[in-house]
Amino acid sequence: MSSSAGISVYGFTPVLSSASTLLETDPPSAAPVVFPVAQTPIPSTPLAQRIDAYAKAHLPTPTYNHSLRVYHYGIAIKRYRFPTWAFSDETYFLACLLHDIGTTEENLNATKMSFEFYGGFLALDVLQHQGDSKNATAPKDQAESVAEAIIRHQDLCQKGKITAVGQLLQLATIFDNAGLYSDIVHPSTIEDVTKHFPRLQWSNCFARTIEKENKLKPWSHTSTLGEKDFSLMVLGNTLMAPYE
């Protein structure tokens, strides 16, 4: 694969970091349509299947379900608002499955690094070096794109650029975690996604993870979102409250 093709298919295309500015640019003329889970299937490649099995084995069920919701919401957002973004569903799927790998009890206590940064390093290793065949390992560019997106998925900047796959990961995670940008996903899509991947009191679960990391690592990147404000935002997620 050529370098320019890799930039596109693996999601390295630079886009605005500011989600609000990005969404205000060229606003759509119609409301979002329904994208049920059946219309946004997960990739069936050997690599996707291997990382799916890895995520199921290592993530608690609420976190695994969140990761799958982020995938399906993200694909719905991409089709509605960013249809020209050319990165593969597989690349985005890998980023979704691994974006919270650093939040497990084991991994939070395994390092003094912020969970997103450690998660990015774990993703690089899992994607490139733990496959049982050539087809089940990720190319270097793809693995680095996933790691970059994971490292920056809580980096909610208002200036500068981010990769397209990183921006979509941000949008879908903040949508599921805090209910922000509620107008970019159809309510029936939310209903169908949560039916397939129940929240299982996710708001309380994730708020506890935020508080745990801030207590363990007062220097963590999560603290830049507000040591109390971020967990309160998650707990105050009115959009997803009916599905908790």
Automatic annotation (TrEMBL):
Its cofactor is Zn(2+). Pfam families: HD. InterPro entries: Cyanamide_hydratase_HD (IPR017771), HD/PDEase_dom (IPR003607), HD_domain (IPR006674). Its EC number is 4.2.1.69. One of its GO terms (biological process) is cyanamide metabolic process. SUPFAM superfamilies: HD-domain/PDEase-like. One of its GO terms (molecular function) is cyanamide hydratase activity. Residues 63-178 form the HD domain. Keywords: Zinc. It catalyses: urea = cyanamide + H2O. Belongs to the cyanamide dehydrase family. Cyanamide hydratase involved in the detoxification and/or utilization of cyanamide, a toxic nitrile compound distributed widely in the environment. Homohexamer. This is cyanamide hydratase. It comes from Penicillium canariense. The lineage of its organism: Eukaryota, Fungi, Dikarya, Ascomycota, Pezizomycotina.
